[in-house]
Design goal:
TIM Barrel, single chain, binds flavin mononucleotide
């Protein structure tokens, strides 16, 4: 296996996955304009290269949350990660830890949070969806703390379940019902089917204890029943008081909200529109990043995701004001296309692309790139 670029992975992932699984991974909300807008905005942003700089020795390492990471990106939380490929979550967590970058485990993941903390000590972050019952939230937060996680990402851009048309048309349900259409998909994708059956059909292992019926419902029904649409600033204040380690709010898209999150004592923001999976009409994240940076000041940690498909995109995000980047679908396309071993290769590819792009732009490290901010948009 040798991955040339992320765009080569998507068609191969599409061939290897049953349609309802690929659509769950690839799809977005509504007309999916938001998904395309994210990627296009990254493509359209330009970098102004400096010439005649000695760039032979380059360093991508970056400081965030009191420590240094080998590269300025980590892995975004993906619910149902083991549905994309059996045992994907463990493999990605292991590859991230080996590369010295963070891996974020989703509340809706299929691997126990305690297990991921063992596999990737010091490199595992936990993403929290708050449920309706306070005692369940308190319990999961306590487990996350006991397992040794230092960083909690609270996702706030899912106040309700989005209408993802591909999932609706596929009648996407987990565990899937064997309808004739699903049976045909399973038979025509034997590798995925055999490996999935032998690994055990993915379950919501971190939350099913709070809602025992959860694994019999569709993901949409699960989200609708569990998500607390009325979670507000007061609740965030309470969470801040309960969790004393790093608290990052994921899914913030405006300058006003960002300042409020900062002033509430949170430790950072992920500027994210959930990869276009929630509000189809949300702006591209890279387009709102500059105003958010201007509002929160130079030193407040800003992470960005949504639409990142290359190391070059990572460099553009940093040059446009981000401190760190999360990679969502790109990692899952790699694992779907080539199996869990591709996690390491994808990380190496992104590092190689980012390092070459940094050098080609005329910079040797992240700090000097960020202070020069050599980005430009077409006039
Ligand atoms: C299949 C899939 C599942 C996701 N599940 C979660 C989740 O459980 N929690 C969460 O905060 N974000 C989730 N996200 C959003 C990602 O964390 C991230 O914000 C998004 O993928 C970034 O966009 P990109 O895929 O274009 O890189 C999911 C995204 C995808 C594609």
């Amino acid at each position: 296996m040798s991955i040339a670029c992320v765009s080569d992975l998507r068609p191969r992932a599409k061939r290897r996955l049953p349609k309802f699984v690929f659509d769950y991974l690839d799809g977005g909300a509504g007309s999916e304009t938001g998904v395309r807008r994210n990627e296009r905005a990254f493509d359209e942003l330009m970098l102004k290269p400096r010439a005649l700089v000695n760039i032979e020795s380059r360093d991508l390492s970056t400081s965030l949350f009191g420590r240094r990471w080998a590269a300025p990106f980590g892995i975004a939380p993906i619910g149902l990660g083991n549905l994309i490929w059996p045992r994907a979550e463990e493999a990605i967590a292991r590859a991230a830890a080996a590369a010295d970058i963070p891996y974020t485990l989703s509340t809706a993941a299929n691997t126990r949070l305690e297990r991921i903390a063992e596999i990737a000590p010091g490199h595992a972050w936990f993403q929290l969806y708050v449920s309706k019952r306070d005692e369940d939230v308190a319990d999961i937060v306590e487990r996350v703390e006991r397992a040794g996680y230092d960083v909690l990402l609270l996702t706030v851009d899912v106040p309700l379940a989005a209408r993802r048309l591909r999932d609706i048309r596929n009648n996407f349900i987990v565990p899937f019902k064997i309808t004739p259409r699903v049976a045909l998909e399973l038979l025509t994708h034997p590798r995925w089917s055999i490996e999935t059956v032998s690994a055990g059909v993915p379950r919501f292992v971190n939350v099913e204890q709070y809602a025992p019926m959860v694994n019999r419902q569709s993901i949409a029904a699960y989200l609708t029943s569990e998500i607390r649409g009325r979670f507000d600033w007061e609740d965030l204040k309470k969470l801040r008081a309960r969790w004393r380690r790093r608290l990052v709010v994921k899914g913030v898209m405006t300058a006003e909200d960002s300042v409020r999150v900062r002033d509430l004592g949170c430790d950072g923001i992920v500027v994210s529109n959930h990869g276009g999976r929630q509000l189809d009409s949300a702006p591209a994240t890279i387009d709102v990043l500059p105003e958010i940076r201007a509002a929160v000041g130079r030193d407040f940690p800003l992470i960005i995701d949504s639409g990142v498909r290359s190391g070059e995109h990572i460099v553009k995000a940093l040059a446009a004001g981000a401190d760190f980047v999360l990679v969502g679908r790109a990692m899952m396309y790699a694992v779907a296309a080539h199996g869990p071993a591709a996690a390491q290769e994808l990380i190496e590819l992104l590092i190689d692309e980012a390092s070459r792009c940094l050098g080609q732009t005329g910079y040797c490290d992240v700090a000097s790139l960020k202070s020069a901010a050599p980005v430009m948009r077409r006039p």
